[in-house]
Design a protein that fits this description.
Blueprint: H1 2-29, H2 48-54, H3 72-84, H4 92-106, H5 114-117, H6 122-131, H7 138-155, H8 157-160, E1 184-186, H9 188-197, H10 212-224, H11 236-254, E2 278-280, H12 282-291, H13 307-317
Antiparallel strand pairs: 1-2
Length: 329
């Protein structure tokens, strides 16, 4: 037995000794390294440090300058969305510092334009109406459609998809999902507002950096993505039932007139749909009632209505739409 252990001991000790020698050799060959200090190229302004600490780990340093210039309110909504939707851990002080920095380096000063600062005023709406004019002859329509298709492919298809169905390459990571432009008739007024101001609480930015002619072309092209379905036709009985259901279930958010104006609507981001400015297809309304719209206040109501009631309500909400004048489309 002693002879056996004498034979086994070197076999156990020698590997350990060899390992320690190798470790010593490796340790002696290691040298310290100094990692480079990453400092993004960003303008110097109050709040820069907070922005770098909280934002550039996800957003590239140049991302902010890829966006149109926003007023303070829209930057507040954008940063707020990072907190509410994506779980960014920001204190109130950090939020104010970051918004202040974004406004300083890529914001719109209140004095620059009445449209920029107060998009809901009568003056702002008049200025928008003057900027966005629908083409009035076939040649102008064709030119707008051609230019609009180019602009859409360059700026919009990444989110909305090549055919505008909300299935762009970026759509799976966005909440709420990009709008399906092929299932709703949009008024010129709504598209003008969205292109000029963006949609709070969504990934839809404003496009004020585009020329007015290009914005007009986009409006014409987006309207072409939805086939004309004619006026909504609903029986008196269905309309009465739909009206009752709307008042009971929908008016609290969408307003009694369907214009998205209510006490509740003022607290919601993104805001409820203004049904006087867009007319979704009945099948799409029924889908929304069944599944809701994730990322918004619109809940799923799959078990709340019978199929006839769902159809009556879908047809009724389409009646709110203010039909465009002949020059709108």
């Amino acid at each position: 037995m002693k002879t056996f252990f004498r034979f086994l001991l070197p076999l156990l000790v020698l590997p350990l000794f060899a390992t320690s020698v190798r470790c010593a050799d490796v340790a002696s060959s290691l040298h310290s390294i100094t990692l480079p200090n990453f400092e993004p190229e960003l303008p110097v302004a109050p709040g820069r440090k907070a922005f770098v600490a909280a934002c550039v780990s996800c957003h590239s340093a140049r991302y902010v300058f890829m966006q149109p210039k926003f007023p303070q309110k829209q930057w507040e909504e954008t940063v707020g969305k990072m907190i509410k939707v994506y779980g960014a851990h920001l204190s109130t002080n950090q939020l104010h510092e970051i918004v202040g920095y974004l406004v300083a380096v890529n914001g719109v000063a209140p004095k620059e334009s009445a449209v920029n600062s107060t998009p809901g005023t009568v003056q702002a709406r008049d200025e928008l109406a003057a900027m966005f004019t629908a083409p009035q002859n076939p040649e102008a329509v064709r030119a707008n459609l051609k230019r609009g298709a180019e602009l859409f492919a360059q700026n919009c298809a990444g989110c909305h998809g090549a055919s505008g169905k909300g299935d762009g390459i970026a759509s799976p990571v966005l909440l709420p999902r990009p709008a399906n432009l092929a299932v709703t008739q949009f008024s010129v007024e709504l598209l003008s507002d969205v292109l000029w101001n963006g949609v709070p609480g969504t990934a839809m930015p404003s496009w004020r950096d585009l020329a007015a002619n290009d914005l007009n072309s986009l409006v014409t092209y987006v309207q072409s993505l939805h086939p004309a379905n004619g006026r909504n036709i609903a029986s008196a009985e269905n309309s009465a039932r739909g009206k009752f259901l709307f008042a009971q279930v929908c008016a609290a958010c969408h307003g009694p007139l369907g214009d998205g104006k209510s006490a509740t609507a003022a607290t919601l981001t993104p805001p409820p749909t203004n049904l006087t400015r867009e007319q979704p297809d009945a099948a799409y309304v029924m889908q929304v009632m069944r599944d809701g719209v994730p990322g918004t206040a619109m809940p799923a109501m799959q078990n709340q209505f019978s199929e006839p009631d769902r159809a009556a309500l879908a047809n009724y909400v389409r009646l709110f739409f203010i039909q465009p004048k002949s020059t709108d489309k």
